[in-house]
């Protein structure tokens, strides 16, 4: 009886405790302001790690551990370093409400300057200056921009190819042993 009671208590504690979840997401289809054209194949992907503390099935900024999106990697607040600063000024995600966040990060080193800004539903901008050379990304959301969300990463085609090659090698080795 004591063992059953202890098992029940441990089960309830395990169910009741919240653990961090990794959510992968990607947006597809942007208006490229530099090319002045809509690109339906343009992707910007990311992930966030959060703990659903209130266990309501949604995440707020105070439940966020880290957010990565495009060239942006940021914590749940605003921080400053000697090289720059990063600031997440809003974050929320829910299956019914979608993903919403806005953030900016600036970093300056002797030879490079990097700035990234994102406001979901409006823009994603990234600029890198190194030695007088610039790389600039300026994307805008449109009604055709789509959000895709998964709790497991989507394998790249190269990953599938490696898996297929490995399986083919195992089958070949098995045939050799059998023959």
Automatic annotation (TrEMBL):
The source's domain of life comes to Bacteria
Protein's UniProt keywords contain Signal = yes
The Ice-binding protein C-terminal domain covers: 153-176
One matching Pfam family, short form?
PEP-CTERM
Q: Which residues form the signal peptide?
A: 1-20
Q: Keywords of this protein's UniProt record, alphabetized?
A: Signal
- Protein name in the entry: PEP-CTERM sorting domain-containing protein
In which organism is this protein found? Pseudoduganella albidiflava
């Amino acid at each position: 009886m004591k063992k059953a009671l202890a098992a029940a208590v441990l089960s309830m504690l395990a169910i009741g405790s919240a653990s961090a979840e990794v959510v992968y997401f990607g947006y597809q289809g942007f208006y490229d302001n530099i090319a002045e054209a809509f690109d339906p194949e343009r992707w910007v992907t990311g992930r966030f790690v959060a703990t659903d503390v209130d266990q309501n099935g949604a995440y707020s900024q105070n439940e966020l551990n880290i957010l990565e999106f495009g060239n942006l990697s940021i914590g749940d607040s605003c921080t400053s370093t000697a090289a720059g600063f990063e600031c997440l000024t809003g974050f929320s995600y829910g299956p019914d409400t979608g993903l919403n966040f806005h953030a900016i990060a600036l970093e300056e080193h002797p030879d490079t300057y990097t700035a990234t800004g994102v406001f979901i539903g409006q823009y994603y901008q990234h600029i890198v200056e190194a030695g007088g050379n610039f790389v600039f990304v300026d994307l805008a959301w449109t009604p055709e921009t789509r959000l895709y969300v998964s709790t497991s990463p989507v394998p790249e085609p190269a990953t599938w190819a490696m898996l297929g090659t490995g399986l083919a090698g195992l089958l070949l080795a098995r045939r050799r042993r059998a023959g």
